[in-house]
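thread from #wetlab-drylab

HS: before we spend reagent money on co-crystallization trials with thiamine diphosphate, can we at least see a predicted complex? here's what I'd submit
DV: go for it
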Amino acid sequence: MTLLSRLEKIGSPADVKKLNTAELYALADEIRQKLIQVVSQNGGHLASNLGAVELTLALHKTFTTPKDAIVWDVGHQCYTHKMLTGRLSRIDTIRTEGGLSGFPKPYESEHDAFVAGHASTSISAALGLSEAKRLQGDEGYVVAVIGDGALTGGMAYEALNNSGKTPGNLIVILNDNEMSISKSVGSVANYLSDIRTKPAYYRFKDRLSNTLEHTPVVGKQVKEVLQNSKSRLKTMIYHTTFFEDWGFDYLGPIDGHDIDKLCAAMERAKRLARPVVIHVATQKGKGYSKAEENPGAYHGVPSFDLEKGNPDISLENSFSSAFGKSLVKLALKDSRICAITAAMKYATGLQFFKHKYPNRFYDVGIAEQHAVTFASGLATGGLLPVFAVYSTFLQRSFDQILHDTALQGAHVVFAIDRAGLVGQDGETHQGIYDVSLLTQVPGMQIFSPVNYRELSQCLRHCIYEIEGPCALRYPRGKEDESLPVSDTDLKKGYQLQKCGSDRLVVTYGRVFSQVLAATAEQPADILRLCRIWPVSDEMLDMMQQYDHLYLVEEGIRAGGVAATIAAALMERGYRGEVRIRAIDNGIVPQAAVERNFCQLGLDAASLTDFLRQ
Ligand SMILES: Cc1ncc(C[n+]2csc(CCOP(=O)(O)OP(=O)(O)O)c2C)c(N)n1
Ligand SMILES: CC(=O)[C@@H](O)[C@H](O)COP(=O)(O)O
Ligand SMILES: [Mg+2]
């Protein structure tokens, strides 16, 4: 009989509450070992999880989920929470097909209070949950756990601005490790770092305020008078941080790896009558030396060898790198070219640009909306901005693209990375909506290159041959080197591959490889669009010459290129047959991309059947 480890004995958060401090630290060690082992096998968000182990233990020691709700921001740091809430036996399945998600999922467990994946949403969601409790007379606290990176996103401030005056069951835990994926940027990051360097000063103020609070009779009165006055004494004692100006109580900075201190602060927060911010200082990557040394490289990793360590932070052989390098080449000859990222410098391949042209490189933080309007300002001011962003995160900026870019015809180039299916991050991160969104934007042109060479040509074309907004979109990962692709005339925007068939497949982007393989079995002509939007009359004329059209798209059907072509052909009175293969259900769960292709009927075998019909 094998002895159960401490971790295996945790069936639910109730078991965490029974442990003393020493036992909790021993448990933390086991959790770290498990995190490292699982992420090295499955890939995932290692450094963020390693940094939040004690914090998660303290949360479950102090609060009682699901009566109390914990809302994780982004949610990429929730692996320990999953292990402690009855999912340890399935943790090895994390991020795999049919397995646990790498993000909070209420359908997975009642302990996951809210869906996450995109940043800066936790305080808004927590405020909503807290108000729902209040209005329905439900008991329980609501805790938002937000990182300093996620605190660079505008939504967090909208929520703070809206929360300060609410009755007090809302607790915001600011998990400050001074890192987003790369170093946290902006004035708030500097401000937080300033607070972190003066813990004694903040402890003194806190003690003074606490003492007043507990001084019988006069203490409370003095405190109230001071809090409501404008005196310098008040400023000295109570005006500690901007959180207080917004109506929160502030506790911190607290060592985020000291379980007793964390628990004490959380217990105190429960007793306070106002919403509270607990500012916690943690170390990203804690407990795994390689991740401590280079937390950015271990933020999100593919599976890796524990001995060798260091998975590549940005793969050399990838569309992202090809894009980044092409942009540098163009920028060498044109000082008007600027590059913008919303906290994804390495992942979008912009590190090359930053290295070469730091004064025209902008990391704006997790602020996609701001990034778009900022880019539109740069364009209106005479520059050539390129905003490199994941498809899924660009969704945030739809109104900015419409209102601030398109309506004034600003020439902003959107370099849309992770376009299409993304794999293990699952439904929150799929890049399958951008085409349907962008086709609604007046004047927008969209390109979908299939290899690095074409990407580079499209980028140049977008920067120099187009006025107004334009986008080029490319998938996660690397090119298919076997593709027989010659240079495309980008003014025409397509390539027609003929075999003398009366059937035509119209497609674009990564799924072209699958179409090619399918037509080897079921011969058909192929019209590959490189400029996928707008669809020109010339393209439609060409389609009308065929009796059977097969439109294949790695994106959602509604509003997509295929559906729009079908509608345009109908208006033209086309009498032939049109069949569409696109993504009908917009919620595509995690799996290897190849598996998602099969599930959605976009792989070569399924497309062969499709062409047979
Ligand atoms: C809207 C949006 N943009 C970008 C991302 C990509 N992203 C995921 S985690 C992360 C950094 C988060 O930093 P922080 O909140 O401080 O958490 P940490 O990893 O440091 O614990 C970024 C930029 C995202 N998830 N959502
Ligand atoms: C949590 C998050 O949103 C990112 O870290 C994302 O998981 C990165 O995905 P890639 O691995 O495609 O860069
Ligand atoms: Mg952080």
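DV: The mean pLDDT is 94.
HS: ok that's useful, forwarding to the group
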